[in-house]
Amino acid sequence: MRPDSEGKSIRRKAIVVGPQRLYRDVLASFLSATGLAVVAEGSDLAGVWKTIDLEAQPEILVYCFSRPEGFEHDLKFARRIRDRLPEIKIVGLAESVSPRIFLRTIPVVVDCILLNDASSELLRRAIEFVLLGQQIFPLGLVQAAVLAAVQELPQNEVSSAPGYPWPQRPERTRRRGAGTLSERDHQIVKCLVQGLSNRAAALQLNVTEGTVKARVQSLLKSGSDEPDPGGDVGAIG
Q1: Whole-structure pTM value
Q2: pLDDT one-digit tens code per residue, 33-65
Q3: What span, in angstroms and rounded, lies between the C-alpha atoms of 42 and 51?
Q4: What is the pLDDT, as a whole number, of residue 197?
Q5: Which of 83, 108, 137 is the last residue of a domain?
Q6: How many Cα atoms within 13 Å fall on the side-chain side of residue 182?
């Protein structure tokens, strides 16, 4: 909840999207229990985009993404919804996400990705952080995306990382003006591939957590043709 102009608490408004009615009903009940008011629902983003009530001013959309082959179609309509409602926060639940799609569009369009088997407590906390302006993504996905973006990373720093080999890096053309990694960038990437969180990396390198987040954001942008999404990147393992 948040206070209105008179200091009274009002419920934040949410949209629930998912292919199955039972799924939507359960998610709507959960969101209501956390203090959100569900003002609309739909089976897919395309339908929600066509019927969305701008006057309702929803603040968050929680969506169950399609299987990987349908991601780009879903993200196209997620972007259209954000164009209509620039301040809306979008939380996606998915079975899996490829680093290629993550690099291309997700940090720009979606504020949070959680796996479908995430606990209700994790979802509740993620929604709280997203409404505060944070971005939340699984740590393993951030690691893989950073490695996909950083072509200068020495092989010996990757081969010992948890879960190696990583998914194949997407083919891309180096952007004009892109420079080489700084020594600090190499240190941060090395911490990430070792499985450290943003906070743990900051403590190990004796820098602020904000510095780590800013450098991760910069590295992600180096592998994407999308504009700067702004906000913070949070990693949940």
Answers
A1: 0.66
A2: 999 999 999 998 988 888 888 888 899 999 988
A3: 9
A4: 76
A5: 137
A6: 7
* Integer angstrom CA distances of residue 194 from 97, 143, 160, 201, 211: 21, 9, 8, 10, 18
What is the C-alpha separation between 184 and 174, in angstroms, rounded?
A: 21
Residue 235, φ and ψ in degrees, nearest 5: -115, 125
Domain of residue 18, residue span:
2-137
Confirm if 90 and 63 have CB atoms less than 8 A apart.
yes
Integer Cα distance of 195 and 144 in angstroms: 11
CATH number at residue 120: 3.40.50.2300
User: 6-15, 66-75, 145-154, 205-214: lowest mean pLDDT where?
Assistant: 145-154
Q: Are 113 and 64 in contact (CB under 8 A)?
A: no
Residue with tokens 């349908």: 70
CATH number of the domain that residue 197 is part of: 1.10.10
> Which residue type sits at 110?
V
For 116-157, how does the pLDDT look when each residue is reduced to its tens digit (9 = 90+)? 888 889 999 999 999 998 888 887 777 777 776 664 444 444
Structure tokens that stand for 38 in this block: 């569900």
